[in-house]
Amino acid sequence: MKPKTLSNPKWRRVVFKISGAALAGNCQNIDPKVAMQIAREVTTACRLGVEVAIVVGGRNFFCGDSWVSATGLDRPTAYQIGMMATVMNSILLQSALEKLGVQTRVQSAFPTPEVAEPYSRQRAIRHLEKGRVVIFGGIGAGTGNPLFTTDTAAALRASEINADAVLKGTNVNGIYDCHSANDNVVLDHLSFREVASRGISSMDMMAITYCEENGIPVVIFNLLEPGNISRALCGDQVGTLMDQAGRIS
User: Fold this and answer.
1) Cα 31 to Cα 16: distance, rounded to the nearest angstrom
2) Any idea where the Aspartate/glutamate/uridylate kinase domain is (predicted)?
3) In sequence order, what are the residues at sequence separation of 6 or more whose Cβ sits closer than 8 angstroms to the Cβ of residue 148?
4) Of 138, 155, 178, 228, which has the fewest Cβ atoms less than 10 A away?
5) Crossing angle, helix 75-99 and helix 32-47, to 10 degrees?
């Protein structure tokens, strides 16, 4: 039996933010099993009518912050290298999705004409309306600015394409309750204000603030758990939901 919400998706259009670290799985760069699992579950959601745009990180190939700390490398230079890593991940995901018959377009504000379209909001929306998946490169490649995180890129693109939600797939189950005696308790619903007051670091605060200001719900969930991606894309309860209201007593 499929969850009821999978046959009646809550979201019409979503931005799916994929953590580069989660994409690595048990490998050093990108785990083919994880890439194909993502592709299969995105395909399931697309066939149910959900319009899916993706922003993917690049940490599995290159972590700019680590290089800046270890070598003193100029920060903009390090982040520009990270931008190229996000484009590599985008092309790999495009290949996995198209192998399953899902038409996919990669768009980037970082010029890579041989492998990606230049970013165009109107063209991206037309692609989504035609049932295609659109992948935005991420850091810099998604926003044109190398100093933005992929979280912020996802929030920005979500606003621009009128997405109903930002869904961040990571390698953790959601936001944990640090005030609980049991450290493994995952909070299922928080308001944006609660997130700020708790000092939660599961997502970049600039991205959270941007989503709050634009009324875009955010879900943080574990994409490595089978079934979680399609459930999250369709609006089923998975991981932690952040929105304006938060938990209702």
Assistant:
1) 18
2) 13-222
3) 139, 140, 142, 156, 206
4) 178
5) 60
Alpha-carbon gap, residue 72 to 70, rounded angstroms: 6
Could you report the per-residue pLDDT of 1-53, keeping only the tens digit for each?
344 446 689 999 999 999 888 888 777 788 899 999 999 999 999 999 999 99
Q: Report pLDDT digits (tens) over 175-217.
A: 887 665 456 788 899 998 888 777 677 788 889 999 999 999 9
Angle at 236 (CA atoms; ends 235, 242), nearest 5 degrees: 65
Question: Average pLDDT of the chain?
Answer: 85
Cα–Cα distance for residue pair 43/47, rounded to 1 Å:
6
Centre a 10 Å sphere on the Cβ of residue 55 and count the other Cβ atoms it contains. 30
* Dihedral pair phi/psi, residue 175, rounded to 5°: -95, 125
Contacts 24+ apart (CB under 8 A), 95-98: 96/35, 96/36, 96/38, 96/39, 97/39, 97/42, 97/43, 97/133
Is this prediction's pTM over 0.90? Answer: no
d(CA 236, CA 30): 27
**Looking at residue 1, what is its pLDDT?**
38
Packing angle, helices 205-213 and 150-160, rounded to 10? 10
